[in-house]
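Troubleshooting log. The previous run stalled partway through. Resubmitting the same two chains, unchanged.
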Amino acid sequence: MGGPDLPVLPEDDSMLSARFGREVANYFSGSPLNRLSFLRTDHDFLRAAFSHPSTAFLLMNSLNPLTKDDSHLAFVSHADVEPLTGADPFAKPEEELIKEFNSDKTQPLILFLGVDDKNLLPSNGTESGAFKFKEYNGSPYFAVDVTPRGTLTEASNSIIDALKAKGLTFQDHSPRRMNLVSPEAAIYGQARALLDWNARNPFCAQCGQRTLSVNAGTKRVCPPTDLSGSSDGKPRDRGPCATRGTISNISFPRTDPTVIMAVASADGKRLLLGRQRRWPAYWFSTLAGFLEPGESIEEAVRREVWEESGVRVGRVVVHSSQPWPFPASLMIGAVAQALPGEGEAIHLGHDPELESAKWFPLEEVKEALLHGTSGMGEGAPEGYKEGALRLPPQQAIANRLMYAVVEGWGLPSKI
Amino acid sequence: MGGPDLPVLPEDDSMLSARFGREVANYFSGSPLNRLSFLRTDHDFLRAAFSHPSTAFLLMNSLNPLTKDDSHLAFVSHADVEPLTGADPFAKPEEELIKEFNSDKTQPLILFLGVDDKNLLPSNGTESGAFKFKEYNGSPYFAVDVTPRGTLTEASNSIIDALKAKGLTFQDHSPRRMNLVSPEAAIYGQARALLDWNARNPFCAQCGQRTLSVNAGTKRVCPPTDLSGSSDGKPRDRGPCATRGTISNISFPRTDPTVIMAVASADGKRLLLGRQRRWPAYWFSTLAGFLEPGESIEEAVRREVWEESGVRVGRVVVHSSQPWPFPASLMIGAVAQALPGEGEAIHLGHDPELESAKWFPLEEVKEALLHGTSGMGEGAPEGYKEGALRLPPQQAIANRLMYAVVEGWGLPSKI
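Second attempt completed without errors. Output:
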């Protein structure tokens, strides 16, 4: 079926695995990094990690990652990012940075991604020894936003030009082009989601004033004062904001839960697929949609399937999940089964999102999984017969869900 | 074990159910309403629904719902809300409301919740006949925010006073007090989550200007102009904003995916539970935490368990889910199994969130599920022996996950 390798989990002989089958890991998951999320506020740790010779920096320009070839990210060193970040950006503690907040100055955006504590990635370090902080070790990984913006435009452009001179480029790795090897796709996904969230939230949704990125890129606070426009060096009071003094979810990154489901017929012999108008000819996929406030996953699956296709769903079982950083989704993949009889009737008249929805025999889906999958931006694969069903590639959880049903997951009557 | 009934799903003899067991529905799910989400932009529909005699209105004051007794919401009629909403608040189409946007005027917040198309709720209508719009019918449900604020303070207070005179009260139904019968808890959860989201987002996080609620309370747009302060009746241009002209997730309600997991030991005979310092004595629960950008559910479970307890988790299986409107979580409930040997070693030194984490024999957990559960705000239940394990009530998904493991869910060696 082509495409890069998918994440592979270790052998597993647990009772859960024996009963429910092996866990499925999807593209964009399987990160080799330990996030050490509890150290993001520890500037002693961040300073040591940022300046260590083994540390690797992923650069992103307008959300496109620096790459060395079609399937690998390029990681650069401390010296490469210093013109933008300064030598020691975590020198001051967060409280001080908040006190000194000046909304006229563009802050460099630096994400701490984690440490490669299992040595799963090619070493980027020198011979100077591994990084170690307390009981934690492994090469640290950061992402730095080099998108030219505000008072950092010149510094960003100088870095971009220097990298171009080295033959490195920023490449689009959006859903139309998922070529990165899977551990690097997971790192890119984490960085992309967080940089995008920061870019969408320069202002406080609660009070309308500018926010400041803290916790190594994973929190945005609404500082109580601002030095902007001050002539005497004294900060201006910004008035009260409900996000201060309490924990507000809007200070933290947003992830949008999304349900995506392979719906089998009541007899387990057919699969419900739909297509959108703008898709290539003969292309279908599983139905999907955003979960709403106050809904369970199971309810969201039943609502979305009924709204989009008219089909009524009974049992819903979660199969696996996929981070989907375009911009911030968590794809929750389910296998579900339609209610018999009238429950399977297709009606597109509720929500006019789909151009078509149809029941496909499992045999036809199986054939398409073998000979009809490709990236949506690519032509049909070799062996494809014009007019036959086309499906998303295996990097998409939709593909894995269809595969699960075709292989008899949850359906005792295997084809 | 006391407490209100939990949502019950219809009998289910599907293949999925035969293989994986019946679906579990948790408290706050099981809504009796069909959201008809695709009609939220249709003002012909909204006008007809808003003014129909069978329509029921849930009022909320500072996120507390109007109730008629401890376990039931009170629904009021069109005449009761009219002083705040006006008789026909959906008379103008959205485009016109956006053009007329004036940030000096407080807009009433009116949510369309759905229609009771299966007649699951006590009829609130008169004898005047059922509501019908195109192929959809059933009593419509709306929620209206009567929290006194801005230019609506007086109208809100007049409504609140009139209801108090009728003996109705606004009651707190936060996690310390989950008394509502389950279909009404689901309606309250939906309304609470959406009103809270609107209250946290009066400003555009992208450009810092005031937003306007549209789509019957489920979207906030950043209007291009503002009549505020205009003396000649011409609106002021607000400059560009990236949320306009494209679809931005920040215009839509936010839901925070959260993982919560019952972690069994490798031999399936013990369960990992933790406790926070501020909890009542002897009280433990399952571990939980927010999913992060770029993570799968399974990765988030493994990360959170390791960060909080040091335990290393292998296979993760999603069990069920629970909307948790405090303020906006989706609880994704999993059963997981620890890796054997060193994988089970407890170490609290990473993230100091827990006061304690321990392995409990399933027998002890079973005993506590029978005699040690209560709301956290309540005293220990009857039959509880001082010093024994205390656990959350069955309205909490934590309780259902522990129950599942104790009952042998996923673990062939039943106790």
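Takeaways: Chain B has nine helices and 19 strands. Chain B has a mean pLDDT of 94.
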